[in-house]
Amino acid sequence: MTEQTSSTETPRRIVVAGGGPAAHRFADAMHARGLEGWQVTVLTEEAHLPYDRVALSKALTDSTVDLTLGAASMWDHDALNLKTGERVVKIDTAGKTVETAAGSTYEYDELVVATGSDAARLPIPGAEHVHVYRTLEDVWAINKSITELTEKLGRKINAVTIGGGLLGLESAAGTEQLGATPVVINGAPWLMNTQLDEGAGQALGRLIEAKGFEVHGGVFPSEILADGDGQVTGVLMADGRTIAADLVVVAIGVKPRDELFRAAAGEEPQFDLGPRGGVVINDDCSTQVPGIWAIGEVANFGGMCLGLVAPANTMAEIVADRLHGGQATFPGFDTATKLKLSGVDVASFGDAFARTEHALEIVYADPARGVYQKIVTTDDAKTLLGGIFVGDATPYTSLRPLLGRELAAEPGAYLTAAGGGDAPDTELPDDAILCSCNNVSAGTIRDTVNGCGACDGNAPVQELGELKGCTRAGTSCGSCVPMLKKLLETELTKSGVEVSKALCEHIELSRQELFDAIRVLELTSFEEIMAKYGTGAGCDICKPTIANILASQNSAYVLDAGRGTLQDTNDRALANMQKDGTYSVVPRIAGGEITPKKLGVIAAVAEQYGLYTKITGGQRIDMFGARLEQLPEIWKQLVDAGFESGQAYGKSLRTVKSCVGSTWCRFGVQDSVAMAIQLELRYRGLRSPHKLKMGVSGCARECAEARGKDVGVIATADGWNLYVGGNGGATPAHAQLLAKDLDDETLIKYIDRYFMYYIRTADRLQRTARWQEELDGGIKHVEDVVVKDTLGIAEELEAAMAKHVDTYVDEWADTLKDPERLRRFRSFVNAPDQKDDSITFVPDERGQMRPATAEEKGKVLIGASIPMRPRDENEV
Length: 876
What we know:
Structural class: alpha/beta
Low-confidence stretches: 1-8, 859-876
Distance between the termini: 44 Å
Number of strands: 38
Shape: globular
Radius of gyration: 30 Å
């Protein structure tokens, strides 16, 4: 152990070889523990301050993004010296010096080697024409090449990524965002096969192919083909196939940069190296030479070198602790992985492959939805050993900290995709690691929230941002942030502190408070709102929420005045995107009533464009398979025939389902069809925190299933009974009776009040059932406000609804009138007339077309065999 330096001695010199995340974390750890008596010099060959390699995908799609780690002001400390452009090329262990490529020599008392790793290269002909995915310069070069090639060739280019692991799939996703056709090549039998088992890998393959990725597997590339000018033209596979390519990125793994240890001065080898590279370290991260330490990807522990952020951070903290007189030891590698790839959730942790003797695997798989969830336990189904989640990774956040512990419920209860509702709410033990990247326990979080060991003289921490800053939890990959926020709120509630209802980190107001502020001040733009109530540029929480609030307060075209960039994908296209990248067309059929003539129009449109047609549970006809550029053509025919948008894409009223009622049915006591049509035409286009569904039944037999809807209306001999707060979904709820035997006018008045009160006070993405449950007083409170008007706002709510009804305009009719608005509906921005030929259909056995499967497209789902660092779950 190295003794702690006294402040009266000459500062001891620490040299850090390398300037990546591990090096930064070490410097930060030394800074946090105190630099008195130390002089730390960090030598990095790159021209940048240490940056976040985990977030490289952001720099791939936006070359202006700043990935700098931590505060740049840290390097202003007198005892911290960062030297950029200085690559260490030699260690002299006897003289205790290092030499750089620039010819400089630095003396050290302690040397920390954090040189990381290099991208592995392909030993095949033509490999000189490929890009790799490792540094900022690498991703900037890819971005530039795609932009220039697209402009030069005048078409959507084929960007081939060789490698189907985390890094390869992330690279492919980035090329897709830059406008290229993403193609993935790998020889493994399924995607991400180091982290995922076959079922999960196949599910991931189906999901990303549905996103437009082209996957080739089962065989390796043998040559990169290029023309005389060095322009890539294709990839020759070992089986003789040629895959068209305009650009090739290789992301097949990494190899430790251990050349310093191989070239260390001295006749005899001084360092032990692993069989696959990397310098062997002890559990204190020291090497075989006293005073020389290794951290990050260059360090071999237990026979492994891994490119993961969590162990690199832990190693850096251990060395800093040891240099300050501590006894910390490295516990081994945490291989947990969580990422979001093009909107697809993927996560794995622990013994994901059930290699433990007698391990049980509890699996839920839905190939049609591309969902796979697996929990691995001991043979008594009690102790958690690991898990894999694809398509729905909701349980990962709560399960990951429970690794190695007994579960609070049956394992199957955590398989949320099976329709059993939310995962059981489990209180984490104090020693459970909540943030694996920074090794922060639940107990540390609780102590910090309650003031023990917190900043500023043991003051309690009550804000998420402050909690992250104090503990570092949630500051790396970010996957633990939901659990961190939940633990913070739980501890504050226990302490009697009112929990913040901030919409997100950019807006401190709750959705309800923000709604009221926008309404009272009559704000009309995102910029106005952020200037007054927000900070920064916003995020994927506050942007669509603000767009929704603005739309619910006025009927202006939802994509005008900069609001288009705030909307979710479906709202931007005014259509629901399907699994293969096509869209559905859903015209409104109020109350399910339609004339034979209009049926004929739908049939003609579906026939003309080869669309799949289906009658839905909401009594509409959906047409599937339309390409983006076809949507205006299709809607022109529908609008001309008298149809309007059914808004199946929006957080708004979807349908009002009805039975045939007293007009035809011998049991009907009221005209349910007429009422359903009246309600649907009244509330059409009404934007709300979540989708809204209604039902009208003409008698107590309830054929319209009205009590399963947000608002249900059931006829009686004396009028209408009004039910509110019903939902289907994973946690269904029956609607509750609000008022009985209402006449038409009173019924509509109460519904006006109910909907507008919900829109004003519910949280984002909160269904009416959950909103009603959380109201103080529940259904009684709703009755007081809507029926008894105890708040005195009934007239105001009715006026707001009347304004919506008076100003409603069909979005698709408006779109078709404006050429500028129609410019949004193009598959390729740079080639407006080009169609997306990657979309493929096949005839179905029931006489209609459907999306082609991967096998029908002639491809095999594949994966990677090289472990990579985890990715931020918010990245796309």
